[in-house]
Design brief:
Elements (H helix, E strand, L loop, with lengths): L1 H23 L6 H6 L6 H12 L7 H9 L5 H15 L1 H10 L5 H9 L2 H33 L6 H22 L1 H30 L27 H12 L4 H8 L4 H29 L3 H5 L4 H49 L4 H26 L5 H12 L3 H9 L5 H19 L8 E2 L5 E2 H19 L4 H13 L26
Helix pairs in contact: 1-10, 1-15, 3-10, 3-12, 3-13, 3-15, 4-13, 5-11, 5-13, 6-13, 7-8, 7-18, 8-9, 8-15, 8-16, 8-17, 8-19, 9-15, 9-16, 10-13, 10-15, 15-16, 17-19, 18-20, 19-20
């Protein structure tokens, strides 16, 4: 216990030191700086922040465990993770340019700008916040597993969860105080430890513990095949989970905020390519270890904890301590990102839409929302940590969040898409997705009579059809079309000098005078 808890304590202390140093160097706080970190970060900071937001601590438990238990179907994680990041590269220019020019802070700000609709901003942000809370709860619960393994089984599940929650709630003190800047800086440290560190650990396990990948030859036929038509999962199940992952990869609000933090479009694009490289190497090595672990009896008996068990069996307490620090780093980064995203959206996209706020009021409200969210999520996590259907709850959230893909990507690719179409499509898609998910939560939202196709994808198709149909039937007037055309043209203009921003335009107004 001294070794395992000592390693976690040293790492936590390093993070606190980094936060204190960066806090002393932080500029005068405005809400924009608080939300997007002064738009000043290089590609490596962007890539590590994206990585830390995309692969949480549950990657080493839930995803690793799925691969151990089910075999190659777990590779869907590798496929959609790498391809999903690619979308970030192609949308970098308009998203970053508009973010800089019109001082966008959140994903919902982008919807407001593109469609000139405060109502759509409110609906989109509300869906995001509701969908993020279950993931925050799961992030807190995952920390309980780290604490229990660190105690070498001496702490009960309940005590481990309580201690893990307490540690992360304490960490949120700095997230609340510093906002995005502190988050980006610690993501760099946490990302290096979690993803580069895990890649090195996995490489070592493959060479020195498994002696290569020969263990994969012991996988059963079921573990080496994907579900086909007529199977329990359904012939469209694998396609559904990969497609939903790719489409939904840029629907989570943390991702857009990462784009806004970059110093330029070039840094966003470089960061995307770097994230793909890091993610590919990390995912391949982690999945290879999981596949090699699948035939081992003690791993198969408890797949969710098998990453820790393999590390302990390979190198004793010291290697277990390294594995625990890796998962702790990934989990802490994810919880920080979710907490910051929820607080910013509550202040900027929900309360400020209903009742306009001054800059300092937004800043205080965001901090208060983050603190309240952390406490509420901690209470929920402690009460439901042993619930048998946690996975179903997160799938419910995921099937809803991907509905945002239509107004986001539809608005970026089709200039005739308008406010009425976006709102109608989003509401129809979300209702259908939720209605189909609830009866099949135990199957993760996979609809049996549709060969396992995800409920979110069914809602997404309806969402897209309604978006296009309503946008054509209730076409925008000439003034709105001209506004959108000018908006897209503005994305091609050279960047303004640092510090210059423009207020978001209303119909017929695209480029007001810069704010002094």
């Amino acid at each position: 216990m001294i070794v395992t808890f000592g390693a976690l304590g040293v790492f936590f202390a390093v993070i606190v030191v980094v936060l204190h140093i960066s806090k002393n160097r932080q500029s005068v706080a405005t809400f924009s700086n608080y939300a997007v970190g002064e738009r000043s970060f290089s590609s490596w900071f962007v890539s590590m922040a994206y990585t830390n937001s995309w692969w949480p601590g549950s990657t080493f438990t839930a995803v690793f465990g799925l691969t151990v238990a089910s075999g190659v179907i777990g590779l869907y994680f590798l496929v959609y993770s790498v391809l999903g990041v690619l979308a970030m590269y192609f949308i970098a220019r308009p998203v970053w340019k508009w973010g800089k020019k019109f001082d966008l802070r959140t994903q919902a700000d982008l919807l407001d700008l593109r469609y000139n609709s405060r109502g759509l901003k409110l609906i989109g942000s509300a869906i995001s916040v509701v969908a993020l809370v279950p993931w925050l709860v799961l992030g807190l619960i995952a920390m309980g597993a780290v604490v229990q393994w660190a105690s070498l089984g001496k702490l009960s599940d309940a005590d481990s969860i309580l201690i893990g929650i307490a540690v992360l709630v304490v960490r949120q003190f700095w997230t609340v105080q510093m906002g995005m800047r502190g988050l980006i800086l610690t993501d760099m440290v946490q990302g290096i430890v979690a993803y580069i560190g895990s890649a090195i650990l996995c490489l070592g396990l493959l060479f020195f513990y498994f002696g290569g990948i020969s263990n994969m030859s012991k996988l059963t036929d079921a573990q080496l095949s994907l579900p086909g038509f007529g199977s329990d999962e359904g012939g469209l199940y694998y396609f559904g989970i990969v497609a939903a992952g790719i489409i939904g990869s840029l629907c989570w609000p943390m991702i857009f905020t990462r784009i806004y933090t970059a110093a330029s479009v070039r840094e966003v694009k470089k960061g995307s390519l770097q994230t793909m490289a890091i993610g590919f190497v990390f995912c391949v090595l982690l999945m290879f270890v999981a596949l090699c672990a699948a035939p081992i009896p003690f791993a198969a008996a408890n797949p969710v904890s098998s990453f820790f068990a393999i590390a302990q069996d390979a190198g004793g307490t010291w290697l277990l301590a390294i594995a625990l620090v890796i998962v702790f780093a990934a989990g802490m980064g994810f919880v920080d990102g979710v907490t910051q995203a929820i607080g910013t959206q509550v202040a900027n996209d929900i309360v400020a839409v209903v009742h306009p706020l001054r800059d300092k009021q937004e800043l205080y409200l965001a901090k208060a929302a983050m603190a309240v969210t952390a406490i509420v999520a901690a209470i929920i996590a402690y009460r439901i940590y042993d619930s048998p259907n946690l996975a179903g709850v997160t799938q419910l959230a995921y099937q809803a969040i991907i509905q945002l893909a239509v107004p986001i990507f539809g608005g970026l690719m089709w200039r005739k898409g308008n406010r009425d179409g976006a709102i109608a499509g989003l509401l129809v898609g979300a209702v259908i997705a939720l209605a189909l998910t609830v009866p099949y939560m135990d199957q993760g939202g996979a609809v049996p009579w549709l060969e396992g196709l995800g409920s979110g994808l069914v809602g997404l198709v309806a969402n897209l059809v309604v978006f296009v149909a309503v946008s054509l039937l209730r076409a925008s007037d000439r003034e709105e079309l001209e506004r959108v055309d000018q908006l897209f043209e503005s994305a091609r203009e050279p960047s303004r000098s640092p510090g210059q921003t423009t207020s978001m335009p209303s119909a017929g107004q695209v480029a007001p005078a810069p704010i002094p």
